[in-house]
Amino acid sequence: MSHPTQYALRHTPSAEEFVAAQHSAEFQELRHKQRSFTFPLTVLFLAWFILYVLLAMYAPSFLSIKVFGNVNLGILMGLGQFLTTFLITWAYVKYADKALEPRARAIRERLERSAAAEPAAAQDAPRTAQTSPRTAQTSPRTAQDAPQESPATHDAATRRHNDNR
């Protein structure tokens, strides 16, 4: 008998476990890191956007200053809005990959591994019947039914299984 992969034994946290995780120091640090990056950038971008709108409303002669050819400050500032949006998105993705995702992954893995604290006998025993909310039918699940593939394949198979219920 082969042992199920770590993905087959993934634990679905209860509401109490989620609340406890939200109050943990590592979750609070994750929230602080995320907010300390997003809030200042949001304020700066909104100030930049409001400046552009106010200039368009109250200083159209300033925005109509020609820079080269038929291109004026208004066109450059308008394009700058798009450029700023893409730059902020790029910077956030880089920051999230480096500073947020590792912390979020550690919290998620800790929550999903909490089933490992249960006795080994309980893990080897067949799971009780699970009820599908859409069909209200039960389907027994055992450790032998657990997929033995990679995480990506397992997630795709789970989505297909859930869609077919």
Automatic annotation (TrEMBL):
Q: What InterPro entries does the record point to? A: DUF485
Transmembrane intervals? 37-59, 71-93
Query: Pfam families recorded for this chain?
Result: DUF485 (PF04341)
Which residue intervals are annotated with compositional bias (Low complexity) in the record? 116-129
Q: Which UniProt keywords apply?
A: Membrane, Transmembrane, Transmembrane helix
Q: Which residues form a coiled coil?
A: none
Membrane among keywords: yes
Give the region (Disordered) as residue ranges. Answer: 112-165
Renumbered to this chain, the Polar residues biased-composition regions fall at 130-151
- Basic and acidic residues bias: start-end ranges: 156-165
Superkingdom, natural source: Bacteria
What is this protein called in UniProt? DUF485 domain-containing protein
